[in-house]
Amino acid sequence: MKELLLKQKQILLFAIAGALSAVIEIGSFKIFSVYIPHIFLQEADFHGIHFPVSNILSTMCGIITNYFLSIWFVFERGKHSKKKEFAYFMFISGLSTIVSLIFFQVFFRYMYLNHIDAGFFVFSREMLSKISAIVLVSVLNYTVKKKVIFNG
Question: Over 90: is that where the pLDDT of 47 sits?
Fold first, then answer.
């Protein structure tokens, strides 16, 4: 078991960093999706797009968290300068954000039509959609960041 963990250390660290980033993203989404509709009244349904500002702001919180966790604990430096590395990371994360937002809309509109009561916690449609979108985009993120940004 120890050998397997050592071989898969980077994937394990990426998963931990991703989980911590997801906690930040989901937590900030919960906060934003509760308070922003009081300021921006169309936040819940802006021309058919559900929670756009909350989604974008929370995703940015998750991306910044993930960047720092990735450079500190997951990946070794690649051939790029710090500026280029950061720019590539943000660009890839920006594309991932667009994909994540699309998945969120699909899940919210077509898949999660009701909340799920887990007994100890109620998962709202928007939380279920956000969590599902994060999980799907995580695999893409790991592959691209490992191969393109951190070269390894």
Answer: no
